[in-house]
Amino acid sequence: MSRSYDGGNFMGNLYMNMLIQSGEKALVDGNFKEAERISSIMLQGDIFFAKAYKIKGLALQHMNRELDALVAYEDCLKYHPERESKR
Predict the structure, then answer these.
(1) Which InterPro entries match (predicted)?
(2) Domain ranges of the chain
(3) How open is the CA angle 27-11-28, to the nearest 5 degrees?
(4) Which H or E run includes 60?
(5) What does each of the 87 residues of the chain score in pLDDT, given as a tens digit?
(6) DSSP one-letter code for 45
């Protein structure tokens, strides 16, 4: 019996999880420009919107761009975990 799986989807999810970890690490390390850059890449990937906007909001807040951070947080609230899949 052979098992079949969507290898492209698996690799895409692996890549996005690596981006999430990198973005969170950049926040912890205080590298906020890198965290914002990573969140922008995540948003281009059309997946994990809530996590991407959360990382972006935290990065912008620490860079003293409060208005932009508020917009990112509002966008974060639009997405729920059950909608965190590719459209």
Answers:
(1) TPR-like_helical_dom_sf
(2) 7-83
(3) 10
(4) helix 49-62
(5) 444 445 557 777 788 788 889 988 998 898 888 988 888 888 776 667 777 778 888 888 888 877 777 777 777 767 654 444 444
(6) T
Which residues touch 68 (CB under 8 Å, ≥6 apart)?
A: 60
Write down the pLDDT at residue 85: 47
Burial 40-54 (b: 16+ CB within 10 A, else e): eebbeeebbbbbbbb
3-state helix, strand, coil in the chain (%, to 5): 75, 0, 25
Separation CA 69–CA 61 (nearest Å): 5
Token pair listed for 26:
């950049």
Q: At which residue do the structure tokens 């590298």 appear?
A: 31
Question: What pLDDT score does 25 carry?
Answer: 92
Q: Exposed (0-12), middle (13-18) or buried (19+): which is 9, by Cβ within 10 Å? A: exposed
